[in-house]
Structures are given as structure tokens and as C-alpha cells.
Design brief:
N-terminal domain of TfIIb; elongated; single chain; 11 helices; alpha+beta; three-stranded antiparallel β-sheet; iron-sulfur; 4 domains; molybdenum; 11 strands
Length: about 300
């Protein structure tokens, strides 16, 4: 004979099972009676389909990629990113032997024929679609619109960006003035002030600074003597620059610490992933500007 306790347990268990099934009935129904939706093959060519050949920036390899762009209701959408079969890094594979990698596709192969083949590409490269459509992707220049660290930004035009990078600008919300490259380009400022050979002036300043640093490294030189030498240095160059309407502060980062160099050193180029050709270009630009601060990233 079933006890009252056992009967109550059975009723409670049955009720709980009923509640569970009722809550997940739609899920259970889809499992028991699955439905199938057929999708047509992607359009590979024809009206509304075009291909863009470019390079992947997912890593430092710079693989060649082929991007299929299709038009839906007047809007272009990236359908797929795959390896460029013409590119030496990717080498094409055939549809029937996808585990085999062949040589680079002959450049004489017609593009329409190449669409039947694809080049190999890693998962990160294929996922470049999400880089393009990431909601946090920055596609317009942003300018700070509040105190530093406030996290407030506003969009500006490319023309304004170039102008303020070169000539400097003001944070309208705070009144903070930011210098531009023109202000940091000491060679140009000396030239505009009337010095015929700015390079000679900068070389003379560096020579005096090197002598000061040698004195500073000499343990036999007392602090009072070093301070006197520093004051003489500042007086000499303040007078020389003042004759052309400039201040020592217009040339040096910090006149009390002349070893920091000229204000051109306030330009710091910190590159991310880079290639040799870009490195040569940017290094020459930074060096010609007068800065020693061309730096690589590390990881």
C-alpha cells in the first residue's frame, strides 16, 4: 500500500514535470518536429556582385584577399572574404581537392575563371567582415570635447583634423590649447625668424648641451658650478634667439633640462604593426622633422 508521503511526492513531482514541459514546450516541439529551411547558393557573379582585391590587416603577414560585395535592396554588403588565388601568400586550392595547396595562380588566368578557385586564408582573415561592421569601429575623426580623461568626443571633418594637427587647435569646451606640428618644427621656426642656417644654430646648441652633460657626468664638478654653467648657457641662447624675436622656450622642450632636446622631440611616432617600406618612410619623416622619438611597438 502506498503511503500518504509517497503519494504527495508523486503529485509534486508530476506537477513539477508538467510545469517544466509547459515552459519548454516550443523547444521540445522543435526538437520532436524539426523544420528545414533551404537557402539558395550565394551569387558569385552577375548584376549586383563585385569583387575587391586588397590586403588583410588581421596580422603582420598582409595576406592577399578577395572580397565579394553584393547589393541587397540598394545596399552593398560584404558576403565573404577569402584568399586571393593570385597572391603568393595564399596559393589557390581547387573545389575538389581542398586539402591540397598549389602554386600561385598564373597572372594570365582570366579573372572570371579565377572565381572558380579560391586562395587559402586563416579564420581571422575570413572574419574581417566583423571588423568592417563592428558597431564600435571609428570611421570619422574624433576630437576631445571635454577635460582629458572625461571620455567625451565629437566628430570633426578630415580638413579640420589636418589643419589642427599642423597648426594646432583649441578644445572649445575647456579653452585648452594644443600645439600643432608647425609649432614643434624648430627648424622651420628658426627659418621664419630670420636665421639663414637653422641647422648650424641647432648644431651649436647641441654642442653646448653635450658639453653641459659631460660636466654633469663629471663627479668632480660641484652642483654650484654646474648651475652656473647652465645659467650661462641659457643667457647665451636667450640673447641669440631674442635678437630674432624668439625665446629659448620656443626652441627647447625645457631650458632647465636642455638634454631633453628641442621641441621637435615632442613629436613621438609609435608605430603598431609595420612593414619595412612604411618604416623607412616614417623614420625619414620623423628624423627630418628633428625628433629622435621614432619607436616600434613591442609585444
Amino acid at each position: 500500500m502506498v503511503s500518504r508521503r509517497t503519494a504527495v511526492k508523486g503529485v509534486v513531482g508530476a506537477a513539477a514535470l508538467g510545469v517544466f514541459i509547459a515552459g519548454y514546450w516550443n523547444t521540445v516541439d522543435r526538437i520532436v518536429k524539426p523544420t528545414t529551411t533551404l537557402y539558395k547558393p550565394d551569387r558569385l557573379a552577375g548584376a549586383g556582385v563585385r569583387y575587391v582585391y586588397t590586403s588583410c590587416l588581421g596580422c603582420n603577414v598582409r595576406c592577399g584577399i578577395r572580397v565579394r560585395v553584393s547589393t541587397y535592396d540598394g545596399v552593398e554588403v560584404i558576403d565573404r572574404i577569402e584568399g586571393n588565388p593570385y597572391h603568393p601568400y595564399n596559393r589557390y586550392v581547387s573545389a575538389s581537392h581542398q586539402l591540397s595547396r598549389y602554386d600561385t595562380l598564373d597572372y594570365k588566368t582570366p579573372v572570371q575563371q579565377s572565381l572558380k578557385l579560391t586562395g587559402t586564408l586563416c579564420a581571422r582573415g575570413q572574419d574581417g567582415i566583423h571588423y568592417v561592421y563592428d558597431p564600435y569601429r571609428i570611421v570619422k575623426p574624433l576630437k576631445r570635447a571635454g577635460p582629458r580623461g572625461s571620455g567625451k568626443w565629437k566628430t570633426i571633418s578630415w580638413q579640420q583634423l589636418v589643419k589642427e594637427v599642423v597648426e594646432g587647435g583649441v578644445i572649445e569646451e575647456t579653452g585648452e590649447r594644443l600645439p600643432g606640428l608647425k609649432e614643434l618644427y624648430v627648424f622651420g621656426r628658426l627659418k621664419e625668424a630670420g636665421f639663414e642656417n637653422p641647422g648650424d644654430v641647432l648644431a651649436s646648441i647641441k654642442k653646448d648641451v653635450d658639453e653641459l652633460m659631460a660636466k654633469a657626468a663629471d663627479k668632480n664638478v660641484k652642483a654650484e658650478e654646474l648651475e652656473s654653467l647652465l645659467n650661462s648657457f641659457k643667457e647665451k641662447w636667450s640673447k641669440t634667439l631674442g635678437e630674432k624675436g624668439l625665446k629659448l622656450e620656443d626652441v627647447l622642450v625645457d631650458p632647465d633640462n636642455p638634454d631633453l632636446g628641442t621641441k621637435a622631440n615632442m613629436l613621438v611616432y609609435m608605430r603598431g604593426r609595420g612593414q619595412d617600406n612604411a618604416d623607412v618612410f616614417t623614420n625619414r619623416f620623423v628624423t627630418a622633422f628633428g625628433s629622435v622619438n621614432w619607436l616600434r611597438h613591442t609585444s
